[in-house]
Amino acid sequence: MSDYPVTAQTRLRRMPERGQYDQATVHAILDAGTVAHVGVLIDGAPVVIPTAYWRVGEDVLVHAARATRFARALRSGQRASLTVTLLDGWVLARSGFNHSVNYRSVMLFAVPEEVEDAESKNRLLDALIERIVPGRAALVRPATAKELAATAVFRLPLAEVSAKLRSGPPKDDEADLDWPVWAGVIPLALTAAAAQPDPRQSAGLPGRPPL
Amino acid sequence: MSDYPVTAQTRLRRMPERGQYDQATVHAILDAGTVAHVGVLIDGAPVVIPTAYWRVGEDVLVHAARATRFARALRSGQRASLTVTLLDGWVLARSGFNHSVNYRSVMLFAVPEEVEDAESKNRLLDALIERIVPGRAALVRPATAKELAATAVFRLPLAEVSAKLRSGPPKDDEADLDWPVWAGVIPLALTAAAAQPDPRQSAGLPGRPPL
Fold first, then answer.
1. Which residues of chain B lie closer than 8 angstroms to A95, CB-CB?
2. A126/B49 Cβ within 8 A
3. Which of A116, A104, A107, A105 has its CA nearest to residue A155?
């Protein structure tokens, strides 16, 4: 797979060794993430909105109720910023200064493009359900024309995008290595617990998550 | 505890029943979260930056290397937006349209104020370490004047702030309740695994995380 171009916006200045611009890394982080934080301008000031997202090929997709401020900002023609962050651990060094965080993140800049046609929206929204439980999109009650009209879907093409990662143990100053404090990593991960069935249903229905 | 005032920016328009403006709820979400996403203007466009954060009283604190674009944007005098999101679960309804997410989030707007004085910075940075492992700040090698000078610390006062939450099972249309698909919640939580000691240390040092 190829690399995304490095632009003035996506070039990492701080700790450039943590930057990655290749498709495989960017796709893997986006596919492992759950919630994106999208920055848009509302009344001239930045607003950061958390939202579900998903990837289809070289597009990141987000959806919103049609008439919200968020949807209006996304269709305004202004550049948006979308960031996905996976927190992998606290990094505890011998000095406070060298404490750090293990993480994988993707930062994407794009002018969102609204998907207008109902059939495309339907297909894309199915991909969001499939991302959560594969095979589920075909099982749920199909979307109505009214529901599709009430849902705005936006694509943010993967063009101006970078990944940033840190992993591994603390990087202490050599002179601190004998400082008498425990050093290491607390690994963190978003984990799923056993699915909780809605009580109002018969047993044995399909579309249940594997766990 | 009292409520934060509802302003034009913080008033929830979409699903206002999910909004909370009380101190206890806002504090609890901020104290349970790990990473904030901060929206700043860089060259006139929003950029969303993931960062560690912490709360001390009625301030949220973030830090940055002194000369980064992020630090310059935070000290520019422009309004920033800071969002903390805890993802609690995927909500699987009978229709795609009623699928949802269980979450707790806080959205804060403020013009960040830089903490200039080294002693205050030192004390505040200690509070970040204490948040990760209580008792650890006193054990690490103390910060040097050079390290404190290289670290910018900003306070964002909790004034214009709101919380938004969803919890519980799917809310399906009555007519969909017999649709033959499993419905319920997949609970999600950020969980810590056993701490991984840096191999370069003696056994039994203090400051180890409890897990």
1. 140-143, 147
2. no
3. A116
Mutate to test the interface with B, among A186, A190, A211 (most CBs of B within 10 A): A186
User: Could A182 and B194 be called an inter-chain contact, meaning their C-beta atoms sit closer than 8 Å?
Assistant: no
Spatial separation of the C-alpha atoms in residues B190 and B103, rounded to whole Å? 12
CATH number for the domain harbouring residue B26: 2.30.110.10
Please tell me the predicted confidence (pLDDT) of residue A133: 96
Q: Is the ipTM of this complex over 0.90?
A: yes
Domain holding A62, by residue range, is 16-167
| Secondary structure class of B31 (helix, strand, coil) | helix
List of chain B residues whose C-beta atoms are within 8 Å of the C-beta of residue A137: 96
Q: Is B102 on the interface with A (CB under 8 A)?
A: no
pLDDT above 80: residue A1: no
The answer to whether residues B159 and B4 touch, using CB atoms and an 8 Å cutoff, is: yes
A49 contact partners, CB below 8 Å, separation of at least 6: A37, A38, A39, A40, A70, B83, B107
- Tell me if B187 is assigned to some domain: no
